Amino acid sequence: MSLSVDVFLRAPDGQRRILDVPEGRDDSAGFESWRRTVWGSPSVRATGARFLPVLADGDLEVEAEDVAEFLREVALLRDHLDAIAQSTQRPRGLAEHRAGLVRRLRNLEVAALHARVIEGGVLIW
Predict the structure, then answer these.
(1) Which of 87, 72, 94, 96 is nearest to 39 (CA)?
(2) Region 62-72: what's the mean pLDDT?
(3) How far apart are CA 71 and CA 75, in angstroms?
(4) How far apart, in whole angstroms, are the C-alpha atoms of residue 66 and residue 50?
(5) Please, which residues bridge with residue 62 across strands?
(6) Rounded distance between C-alpha atoms, residue 32 and residue 114, angstroms
(7) Angle separating helix axes 67-79 and 94-118, nearest 10 degrees
(8) What is the C-alpha to C-alpha distance for residues 121 and 114, in angstroms, rounded to an integer?
(9) Which residues have C-beta within 8 Å of that of residue 17, sequence separation ≥ 6?
(10) What CA–CA distance (Å, rounded) separates 91 from 82?
């Protein structure tokens, strides 16, 4: 299984409506194991991240009013990318793991930027 990142809108009745992933967009937020080994890792938590560590215990739903803060967290993790990659690599090589982190952070950013434009939220599950 893999984690996916999606954009959603809230209907007037409060129901969440998940939007289709646009053609050509990668919705991968990492492997299922990344819930704990990467996003919930001590190195990610040490950055002060508050959204992504939630994935260690369940899905993450970022409401529209929090998307700007979520984007700041993605940028923060990008600023600490080398330390996170070094401390969370598994059997793969460091360069491959780092490249995977770069790609997944970009996917999160693209989804969050889209959510911000349409005043929607971000779901990672």
Answers:
(1) 87
(2) 98
(3) 6
(4) 11
(5) 122
(6) 24
(7) 160
(8) 9
(9) 8, 9, 10, 11
(10) 17
Using CA atoms in the order 17, 65, 46, 28, what is the torsion angle rounded to 10 degrees?
A: 30
Tokens representing 27?
A: 């919705």
* Verdict on whether the full-model pTM lies above 0.90: yes
72-107 pLDDT per residue, tens:
999 999 999 999 999 998 777 899 999 999 999 999
Token code pair at residue 4: 């996916």
Which token pair is 76? 């923060």
Q: How many CA atoms lie within 13 A of 50 on its CB side?
A: 6
Identity (one letter) of the amino acid at 79?
D
Pair type for strands 16-18 and 121-124? unpaired
Residue type for 57, please? D
Q: How far is C-alpha 9 from the geometric centre of its chain's CA atoms?
A: 17
